[in-house]
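Problem: given the chain below (187 residues), write out its structure.
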Amino acid sequence: MLKHELRKKYKNLRTGISPSQASDYSLVLANHVLQIPIWDFFYYHIFLSIEEQNEVDTLPIITLLQGKDKHVVVPKVSGENSMDHYLLTDGTAFRKNKWGIPEPVDGIVVSEEKIDVVFIPLLAFDALGNRVGYGKGFYDAFLDKCRKDTLKIGLSFFGTEEEPITDVHENDMKLDYCITPEKVYAF
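Solution.
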């Protein structure tokens, strides 16, 4: 399938999930994170959820990472297709951007080269680890600046798309894992 078709399909599917289901699924996803061999790393980048888009709530994963004394890094849009990355601390203040994404107002900037693991928002993914996001290219540009061995983990309420994504571009970054309520996919 084409990315624009998948975006429409999965946005519609996500609107059918109730807030309580989304909360339950998000907790299950956080528990599944424990199954992945990522615990020897130091810097974990994670998106902050867009509540209005019914995205996976990343707060349970953030709480899990902080409970294991990991450095949690969150993004802030800094330009067209670019983000800066800030260390999450007890004093981090947030403001929503034009897309409704909570972002740190300021703080300690962390370079992409330091980041070991990235949790990625997505709408859909296929059995090859190709992913479909919102189409703005922020994560592809960001992941291109990360080390080649940085682990890329998608978070989704839905399983893998049956058909391969047909309009994958050479600069699209594939996932290493995708976590769903039913299972953890490894690519």
